[in-house]
Amino acid sequence: MLDVATSQLTTLRWDLARELSQLTAHGFTALAVWRSKLSDVGPAAAATSFAAAGIRASSLQWAGGFTGGDGRSFADGIGDAIEAIEAAATLGAAAPDSPPPAVVLHSGCRGGHTRAHATRLLHDALHALGPVAGREGVVLAIEPLHPGAASGCSFLAGLDEALEVVAAVGDPAVGIALDLWHFGDDPGLAARLPQLATTAVLVQVADRCGPPSRAADRLPAGHGTLPLEEVVAALVQHGYRGDFEFDPVGETVEVLGYEGVLGETRLVAEAWRSRVGHVAAETLVRVEPAHGGPPGGEAARAGLYRRAGAGTGVRRSQASSHTVSRG
Length: 327
Hints:
The two termini are 30 Å apart. The radius of gyration is 19 Å and the shape is globular. It has one domain: TIM Barrel, CATH 3.20.20. It has helices at residues 16-25, 35-41, 43-53, 74-92, 115-136, 159-169, 180-183, 189-199, 228-237, 251-256, 258-281, 298-302; strands spanning 3-7, 30-34, 56-64, 102-106, 139-142, 174-179, 200-205, 243-246, 284-286, 305-307. β4, α5 (115-136) and β5 form a beta-alpha-beta unit. An eight-stranded parallel β-barrel has the order 1-2-3-4-5-6-7-8, surrounded by six helices. The protein has a two-stranded antiparallel ribbon with strand order 9-10. By secondary structure, it is α/β, with parallel strands linked by helices.
């Protein structure tokens, strides 16, 4: 099972009508919605357009900032998140027989708080919002961000921290948004995949070269060095059944063009879908860096996984080999 969505962040300059038309033309049935673009048309009108096009909303991004680091109060953050939940519920009503859309949440930076207090604020927010999401038929996805690329919008800098938050809240409407651009080569990812497969409600897919940073490219799948297909196969093997949102952004997208990116993504998704059944059935084992190097080094990034009995090379996607530039 491989449910694939694209993102409005990828097709930033298209209006909703063109996005829905192009998604239909390229065979997609789901779209991740950016709140800034949704405000251009409003949730009700957007839901009508989604229903007419046969497209569903996979997620709505984003809400949060509960620590006050962006100048808003805790109450402001809660109110804004409730508005996002209600908007997502309106979009979800356009596809009542489909999985509920996820509202992606960012914790906010520490904002001068101790880490313990910032964590308490996040717990309080999720305890308040989880029941609202449950009543509205929406799920919440708290998103950890790599510290090198967090841009000050999240103090959740690792997978373990996010998993601990979800476990502590204990609400079935609260899960994780796993961004493989941030954590696709994280040295702890392999051990966490079984837990992530049952905790993640959304997986975001983009490639990169080098470590995550604010300036690093968010590349289309297959244009970087991340073992995306292997991670996706392992998540499916361990029971993940949510959406995989392909959301490249940057100059590479501009070079390929929006239609080019959609067409390439369609080919990648179809190739992964055709292989994911038997790939997921094989054993994936951790490849340790050669010569005792650090677990987060280039050797680990180049070959995070291999199949038992196979060579150490990572099978790359058969996507286009266009030369890429910074995005």
